[in-house]
């Protein structure tokens, strides 16, 4: 597995397995399948409500903990220094681990400065190896990065051939921060699989469109965490390290970028209200 070096020297697998929308009751099986297929990086979050399933898989998989890379995220309802600190302890318990490899602020709302201070303390206490953020647009990212002691190692953003995040990458480079792509294959959007440019490149390499889309990110140095519950697709997504896109092919993909600034934008007040109320509505513990 190819890895990247984060800005604090920690090595992280460049391709991981994401468990967003993986049901709690199937998460353990899916993570065990992923680890069996060769994944060593698993991405979860408090708001996915499946950390316990990831933890059960970690305990059962037979792979030494030191060979796994576990990412989780602090949710808005746990924002603030005290709440975040307590939630980190809860995540450690659910994940059956003494430390988290990468801990992120999930959304740029509520008291995320307090959350970040709790994360910095967790790093100093040896409970977390690297910290960062998720869904921080360039303005909020720079404001945070300029006012914290430990610079974010990662910013997890919606990143794929249709949302390439060039503006974010430019700002993040100044702090050594890596893009970590969620929705790296565009959430299986039909436009991706029917795109003639991607189809032609895939045919020329004897690969699938999904593999080409992932390879594009890998060659840009982006970390990717595709999600699937099917083991055959897990293996397909992992099988992207024995071919390379040419410079011309990389250039031909760049014009596919079509960021939709106000569709699902974190600057949309209605989306902000939805996210602030998310845990109350969807946390199974509240039902």
Task: Jot down its keywords.
TIM Barrel, 287 residues, two-stranded antiparallel sheet, alpha/beta, single chain
Explain how this protein is built:
- With 287 residues, the protein is an alpha/beta fold.
- It has one domain (3-286): TIM Barrel.
- The protein is built from 13 helices and ten strands.
- It has helices at 24-37, 51-60, 81-94, 112-124, 138-145, 166-173, 190-193, 196-205, 209-219, 231-238, 247-253, 269-276, 278-282; strands at 3-5, 11-13, 17-18, 41-43, 69-74, 100-105, 128-134, 154-158, 178-182, 223-224.
- The strands form two sheets. It has an eight-stranded parallel sheet with strand order 3-4-5-6-7-8-9-10.
- Helix 3 links the parallel strand 5 (69-74) and strand 6 (100-105).
- Helix 1 crosses helix 2 (51-60) and helix 1 packs across helix 10.
- The chain is globular, with a radius of gyration of 18 Å.
- Residues 23-255 form the NADP-dependent oxidoreductase domain.
- InterPro entries: AKR, Aldo/ket_reductase_CS, NAD(P)_OxRdtase_dom_sf, NADP_OxRdtase_dom.
- Keywords: NADP, Oxidoreductase.
- Belongs to the aldo/keto reductase family.
- It comes from Alistipes inops.
């Amino acid at each position: 597995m190819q890895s990247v070096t984060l800005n604090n020297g920690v090595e992280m697998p460049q391709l991981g397995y994401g468990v967003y929308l993986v049901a709690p009751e199937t998460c353990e099986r899916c993570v065990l399948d992923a680890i069996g297929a060769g994944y060593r990086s698993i991405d979860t979050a408090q708001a996915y409500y499946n950390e316990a399933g990831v933890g059960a898989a970690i305990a059962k998989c037979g792979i030494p903990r030191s060979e796994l890379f576990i990412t989780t995220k602090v949710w808005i309802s746990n924002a603030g220094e005290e709440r975040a600190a307590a939630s980190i302890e809860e995540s450690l318990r659910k994940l059956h681990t003494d430390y988290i490899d990468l801990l992120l602020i999930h959304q740029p709302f509520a008291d995320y400065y307090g959350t970040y201070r709790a994360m910095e303390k967790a790093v100093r206490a040896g409970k977390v190896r690297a910290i960062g953020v998720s869904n921080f647009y360039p303005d909020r990212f720079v404001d945070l990065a300029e006012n914290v002691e430990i610079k974010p190692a990662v910013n997890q953003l919606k990143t794929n051939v249709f949302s390439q995040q060039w503006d974010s990458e430019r700002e993040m480079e100044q702090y050594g921060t890596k893009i970590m792509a969620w929705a790296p294959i565009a959430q299986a959007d039909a436009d991706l699989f029917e795109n003639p440019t991607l189809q032609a490149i895939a045919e020329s390499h004897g690969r699938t469109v999904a593999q080409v889309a992932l390879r594009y990110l890998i060659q840009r140095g982006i970390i990717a965490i595709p999600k699937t519950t099917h083991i055959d697709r897990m293996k397909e997504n992992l099988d992207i390290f024995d071919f390379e896109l040419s410079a011309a092919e990389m250039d031909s993909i760049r014009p596919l970028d079509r960021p939709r600034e106000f569709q699902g934008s974190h600057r949309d007040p209605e989306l902000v209200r939805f996210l602030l109320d998310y845990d109350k509505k969807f946390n199974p513990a509240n039902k």
